UniProtKB/TrEMBL annotation:
The lineage of its organism: Bacteria, Bacillati, Bacillota, Bacilli, Bacillales. It comes from the Bacteria. This is DUF523 domain-containing protein. InterPro entries: 2-thiour_desulf. PANTHER family: HYPOTHETICAL CYTOSOLIC PROTEIN, INNER MEMBRANE PROTEIN.
Length: 146
């Protein structure tokens, strides 16, 4: 069993209440091979919600207390992102998942790139909070692009 970002299999859980449906990945759900999670909803954030970016580093820095997650209104949503990451990890461990397919570029789910914290559309190398936490617990993380 793998974990998958819920937006990739059609859940309208993105900040703008849209999905990022990937029909090839949706088949994995039909086949019972993936469990969908949305860390930001699991952390208690509403949908829709203001977009958020990591300020001061990537998800690893958030886990270590060196960076924060701030939404476009300036609200600090670090606690919600951390809570959601740990909830997602709990679900992953419950089903024995050893790998995950997570949505690239997201401050939660990005595995290779995240936005740089300036809300200017610029991506930088790094992982989202959930992707970083999964890796620390031995769960292999790939994106829908890899
Ligand atoms: Fe998709 Fe992850 Fe963002 Fe939820 S937190 S909408 S699963 S990219």
């Amino acid at each position: 069993m793998k974990v998958i970002s819920a937006c990739l299999i059609g859940c309208e859980c993105r900040y703008d209440q849209k999905s990022c449906l990937d029909e090839g990945l949706e088949q994995l759900l039909r086949d019972g091979k993936v469990i969908p999670v949305c860390p930001e909803q699991l952390g208690g954030l509403p949908t829709p919600r203001p977009p958020a970016e990591i300020v001061g580093g990537d998800g690893n820095d958030v886990l270590d207390g060196r960076a924060k997650v701030i939404d476009r209104t300036g609200r600090d949503v670090t606690a919600e992102f951390l809570a959601g990451a740990y909830q997602a990890l709990r679900l992953a461990k419950t089903v024995g998942a050893t790998s995950a397919i997570l949505k690239e570029n997201s401050p939660s789910c990005g595995s290779s790139f995240v936005y740089d914290g300036h809300f200017a559309g610029k991506k930088v190398p790094g992982a989202g909070v959930t992707a970083a936490l999964f890796r620390r617990h031995g769960i292999e993380v790939k994106s829908e692009q890899s």
